[in-house]
Amino acid sequence: MVPRTLDDDCGVAHAVGVLGDAWSVLVLRDVARGRTRFEQLLAGTGISRKVLTLRLQALVGSDVLERVRYQERPDRYEYLLTARGRATLPVLAALQDWGDTWLLGDGTTSATAGATSAEAHRVAALVGTAVPPVAPDPLAPDPLAPDPSAGAEAADAAAYTVLYCYPGSALTGIDDVPGGAGCTLESCTYRDRLAEFAALGARVVGVSTQEAADQAAFAARNGIQFPLVSDVDLGLATALRLPTFRLQGVPRLKRLTLVVDRQRVVRGTLFPIRDVTGSVEDALALVRAAVAEDAAATTVASGERQVHHVQADGPVRR
């Protein structure tokens, strides 16, 4: 409800009436991160059951969230963003950026961060977590296809996705931002070493907040043969709480890299990135480590199955 003392024609007043409660904002933050069920929201926010119930009812009543049944007998529901709710993603990203810059940082605009910064800790903590589906989805079989299932066979052949986030190509003023230069060099280095990733069973996908048309033009000029996905609506940025900065009033992703497996689990991260070409070699190293880890796990699982088979059959008698 809009406070009566505020201007009834003020959009800020109306927005605060819906989102002004701190718990409501944190609930939206977690729903954007893929935590859509009551118990997940309870654990993620630390809110009491009673207060969470009230906030969810209010957000559903304001058409920010939609209550959707995902199980019958007993009935279970999850809470999904509506179109009105998805329109709050830039607000969440702006709050994250403001907090990172002015409360957790020193107020300096930068396309990178310190190795011990809150942003670095947040990115490192993504290892072992799942990337929730977003639209457009950089982990889709073909992220640029109108049909999300298109290219499924090619994607199935890749056990890993190297997801590199970058501010954008040919941005006015980017060279004046610490850590901002090198977007074209980074993309072209991935282009030149694409076969090495493919040999390890990995594909490469670039993500920035540039418009898709600008990305397509950049890819055509530079012979980029892998997908460049636009996160202009900040779906991925808010889902993973990725660090951002503002350049000429537009939110841009800070440079970072994620290695994600076929189950959408983050296996490794690179942030901050100081050397754009060296980060490509570092990404290869992360993929190699994931390949070795999975091979070792497969060997152990195979051995356990063999032991179980022998035990089930009993000892061989002669």
Plain-language structure description:
With 318 residues, this protein is an alpha/beta fold. It has two domains: 76 residues, Winged helix-like DNA-binding domain superfamily/Winged helix DNA-binding domain (Arc Repressor Mutant, subunit A, Orthogonal Bundle), CATH 1.10.10.10; 193 residues, 3-Layer(aba) Sandwich (Glutaredoxin). The protein is built from 13 helices and nine strands. The protein has a five-stranded mixed beta sheet. Strands 1-2 form a two-stranded antiparallel sheet. β8 and β9 form a beta hairpin. The longest helix has 38 residues. The chain is globular, with a radius of gyration of 22 Å. 33% of the residues are buried. The model has no long low-confidence stretch (mean pLDDT 92).
Give a topology summary.
Elements: H1 11-19, H2 22-32, H3 38-45, H4 49-61, E1 65-71, E2 76-81, H5 83-86, H6 89-103, H7 118-124, H8 152-156, E3 160-165, H9 183-192, H10 194-199, E4 202-208, H11 212-222, E5 228-230, H12 235-240, E6 244-247, E7 250-253, E8 256-261, E9 266-270, H13 276-313
Parallel strand pairs: 3-4, 4-5
Antiparallel strand pairs: 1-2, 3-8, 6-7, 8-9
Helix pairs in contact: 9-13
Considering the chains and any ligands shown, give keywords for the structure:
single chain, 318 residues, alpha/beta, Arc Repressor Mutant, subunit A, Glutaredoxin, five-stranded mixed beta sheet, two-stranded antiparallel ribbon, globular, Winged helix-turn-helix transcriptional regulator, oxidoreductase activity, antioxidant activity, WH_DNA-bd_sf
